[in-house]
Every structure is written in C-alpha cells, then in structure tokens.
Amino acid sequence: MSAGSGSGPTVSPEVPALLRWATSRLSPDGGLDAEVLLADLLGCDRAKLLAMDGEIDEEGLRAYEKRIVRRQGGEPVAYITGKKEFYSLEFQVDARVLIPRPDTEILVDEGVRFLREERGGVGTVADIGTGAGPIAVSMACQVPGCSVIATDISSDAIDVARSNADLHGVGGRIRFVIGDLDDPLRQTVVEEGVDAILCNPPYVLPGDDRVDPTVREFEPSLAVFGSGDPLRIYERLARAASDLLSPGGLIACEVGLGMERDVLSTLSSAPGLRDARILRDISGLDRVVTARKVVADG
Ligand SMILES: C[S@@+](CC[C@H](N)C(=O)[O-])C[C@H]1O[C@@H](n2cnc3c(N)ncnc32)[C@H](O)[C@@H]1O
Fold first, then answer.
1. How many domains is the chain built from?
2. Is the CB–ligand 1 distance for residue 160 below 6 Å?
3. Residues of the domain holding 19
4. Are the C-beta atoms of residues 98 and 132 closer than 8 Å to each other?
C-alpha cells in the first residue's frame, strides 16, 4: 500500500502501524501529535483512535502523510487541524491568527470573576487585539448578560473572530471593530463607558531568543511582535482605562516574561487607576497585570 508519495509501498494502512510510523517520523516526542492529527482526520477522539485496529483507505493515508510532512516542517498542529481548544471551547484557527494559548485563560477567569461578582453578570467588556476571538467569545459564553466589543488592527483576524463568535452562537452580542488599540473604543464607548478592558497584546521583543522558531516562522508577526515597543502599548491601554472605564472598572493585560514590574508601574501611575496587581498563571508565572478605575475622583 502506498503512503501517497507514488513511490511504492511505504506505510501500512492499519491504524496502530500507521501511528508507529508517524511517531517515528516526528520523533523524539511526536506520539501525541501523530495521534491528534490522525484522530482529527478520522473525526474521532484519541481514545477511540487508540482502540482501532482496522485499516484506513488510500485517500486517508495520503491525507495523513501530508499532515505528517507539514508537522515535520514545524507547522503547529493547530494550523494543520484548523482548530484549537480554549476555555473548553473549540476555535477555528489558521495562519491569519495567533493560536490561542492556555496561559491566556487566566485573563478570562479574571474578567468572568469581575463581571459576576462585581457587576451582577452584566456589563460591557472590551477585548483589544482579539485575534481568533478566544477572550471575547469565552467572555460572551461565560457571562450571558454581558456585551463585548472586540477590536483588532488586522481585518483578517476580525474575520476569523467573527466566524468563531457565530460558531458559538454569541455573534449577536459581540461588536467587531477594526482599528488601532484603543481608537475603536474611543469612537464607540465614550458615552456609556466600559466595565472591563481585557488585552493580550503583542508583547514579544523581536530579538527575544526564547521564542520558539516555529512561532516566528508560522504565526503572524503582527500578533507576536506587534509593530513597536510593547511598553508603549501598555501605556496606551493605561490611558484608555483611565479615560473609558466606568467607576470600579477592571483593566487586565497579559504580559511577557519579565515585563510585569514595568507594566505594574505603568498601571499604578496612570491617573484614575488604583490597586494594580500581578496575577500568576497555572504554572506560577507572573502572567497578567490588573488595575481598577477609582470609584470617585478626589
Ligand atoms: C498576542 S495576539 C492575541 C490574540 C488573542 N487575543 C489571543 O489571546 O489569542 C495580539 C493581537 O493583537 C493584534 N494587534 C497587533 N497590533 C495591534 C494594534 N496596534 N491594535 C489592535 N490590535 C493589534 C494582532 O493582530 C493580534 O491579533
């Protein structure tokens, strides 16, 4: 049986043998990826896949080999399957958007906690730099009484986010606006104010050699590195929070490793903000900086 290369028999079509072949091609740690890529192709979960002992057809074999070749080239699994789970929801992703990371879920945790405990489950949330929409869509799903404004400078990202919102039935409660950082908010919420500003900005410095080379190669540069000094972004966000948050409102921003003190100081020194603090993610890393709008001036 050919594996699709047209060069004769190479791969057994039996699922267990196929997984062994793929795992060896993706070694040293490719077993999980091999399983996820095949389970997705066959439309089943990994448990069901591992219990299979039948063969897959020629077309499936060719498609699977193509996936393994893409993965061998470093392409992230999520771009190959076209999906990524975030906050227990499935998001469609492709090369137009950053792949949502579990690290960012803490931002949603904080937004949900704030709206439920301090706003009675209603209010307006802004998600600046929405990407595939994981923050905006998760907030809308978790807090049915809230409305969301989701912005991004990339019209491609807005298209992906909008389709994810529709996929999860919350498109009617999210306003999508293309624009630079807080500009869209200043045009839309000046009168009514906004209760929470959530943002996972592009915070990686271009010269940061801790960045995985596949992130550099495959994910959108604008989403990873942005187009300037990340600290200027936090300064803009702090000004927007001072100007636009309703009294007691929340700003919560994801930060890069080692940036937390600078961002803390930026939010602490913004007029109209108080109680700046750092939140740790599930790995114990300083991941999010928050602050609150003062309740009354003076
Ligand atoms: C780190 S990604 C975050 C995406 C998504 N919120 C998430 O957490 O997966 C940053 C996003 O900000 C957008 N972005 C970059 N510069 C921007 C700017 N000046 N104004 C608005 N959005 C911007 C990028 O297009 C990208 O979608």
1. 2
2. no
3. 15-73
4. yes
